[in-house]
Fold this sequence. Notes:
By secondary structure, the protein is an alpha+beta fold. The protein is built from 4 helices and 7 strands. It folds into 2 domains: 3-48, no CATH class; 59-110, no CATH class.
Amino acid sequence: xxxxxxxxxxxxxRIELMMSISDMMRKRRTDxxxxxxxxxLVRDIIAEHKGVSSNPGNWPMLxxxxxxxxxxxxxxxxxxxxxxxxxxxxxxxxxxIFTSRSHRSAFLKSKGMYDRSGGYGD
Length: 122
């Protein structure tokens, strides 16, 4: 029986549900959401396929190595904009948030950094 990953519309919490395909189709409403334990959930297909290396679900990617201290996230964003590669930083962890391989590559190049793995295994 397959696992499905849903996201709570109100809280953003991810919830894994195991059900048959027919159960999933039966619960599905016209807008694609489902009701589960009184909560409205929408399917997060990207999260379901995150482990597949060729899948765009690997993005956004969070990077500790290119990150900063959480208190520096705002300044790091401003610096990335001034370098021509706007990059968000997670406000609670300080991790750099890359949206694609090319985004990561451009950001690292702008900072004089590089990825030894060359992006393999993303």
